[in-house]
User: Fold this.
Amino acid sequence: MLRNAQALGVRHSRGRSPNFWNPLAILALVLPLAGCGAGGFDLSKADVDRTLQTGSVGYATPTPDSTSVSDSLTIRNAVSAADVEALGGGPLAWANADTGSRGTITGVAETRAAGALCRTFTASRESYDGVGMYKGEACQGYRGAWRMKAFDPM
Assistant:
């Protein structure tokens, strides 16, 4: 290697060919690694720091934004207006012109519990913030008005 450097005319600043095996350079590279062996840093001697105390923070239920509320009302209206027999288990499309969201309602099933008519369903929601799947239940009140009893992400 030294011959190749001399053949190329490479000279050190003092007029000598560079010495690639300079003992001081080797010592400077090896010395920092000396502490890594025996007597250096050892994780088996580490102890748990018990001075730090943590607490728990209660889970806050996120407040639904106006877009998701508007979309759930649109889905509720589509479920309540649907002719379940005519659907025959097929999909029902929905769209909300106010938010630009749209999707499909599937698996609409009608049940009666304590005299109240309820419809369970699964809905997809495509909007500017992504695609989501929801499981819901809409029930008819005693005055005929429908309300969303459950509308939760899957």
Summary: The first strand starts at residue 92 and ends at 95.
